[in-house]
Amino acid sequence: MQAIEKIDISTDWVTLTFMGLLLCVFLLKGFHRTKLKDYFFAFLNNGFDVSEIEERASLLNRFSIVLFFFTTTTFGLFSFFLLNYFSQEVFLSFAVFWKIQLLFFGYLIVKRISEKLVVILFSMHAQTVLFLTGKNIYTHTIALWVFPALILFHFTTIPKKMFLVFFMLLFILKVVLLFVNNKNLILSKLFYIILYICAFEIAPLFLLFKLIF
Questions:
Q1: Please, are residues 212 and 100 in contact by the beta-carbon 8 Å criterion?
Q2: Cα dihedral 58, 59, 60, 62 sign
Q3: Number of domains into which the chain is organized
Q4: For 21-44, how does the pLDDT look when each residue is reduced to its tens digit (9 = 90+)?
Q5: Could you tell me the residue range of the domain that residue 74 belongs to?
């Protein structure tokens, strides 16, 4: 009987990616320790979105840039793990992860630019600023909470379904808090909110996952 050579697929790049994300956390802590803490506990602090609006911080400052990179990379890695978890094939390839990462980066960039353009075009800044700010803050918060979960997902034998449930609970919490904090806007502009969700949330996200999976 002829022996079959076992092929080991290196996942060193996954470890390096985790180290890069950890470096981002240290940079964010060095840039603005208090703000990083506020982002992490944003689900528990209803006034943080208001303080962010009042501060009017530029989207191009070093804290925002590193946080955006951290968020896109975290969600890219999360989608990569899902791809390997649900697929019968093995995609432990950095090239596959890089494609997913670029898709997420492009998705969030286009999404935020489109939101800004619509708000400016229809002069809706005053009505939507709290909703959009809170939504963006909670997206970063989810990334900060998912990051340590991804480390456990990859390096431990904890049942993988627990991580999927954890992510879904975070997403549901985000939706609930957005509704509670913006219920007057949502109820008074329900038709437009539904159009917004379909155009800027569901449709692009559905297309993104079709491209990935």
A1: yes
A2: positive
A3: 1
A4: 999 999 999 998 999 999 999 998
A5: 12-212
- Residue carrying the six token digits 């913006």: 182
Residue 7 lies in a domain: no
**201, 71 contact by CB (below 8 A):** no
One-letter amino acid at 113 equals I
Tokens of 208: 């993104």
Which residue spans within 21-175 are E strands per DSSP? none
Task: Find how far residue 197's CA is from the centre of its chain.
Answer: 16
Query: Cβ of 127: how many Cβ atoms within 10 Å?
Result: 16
The answer to whether residues 62 and 31 touch, using CB atoms and an 8 Å cutoff, is yes
Q: Average pLDDT for consecutive 10-residue bins of the chain (213 residues)? A: 42 87 94 92 84 67 91 90 71 77 82 76 69 87 94 85 88 87 77 68 61 55
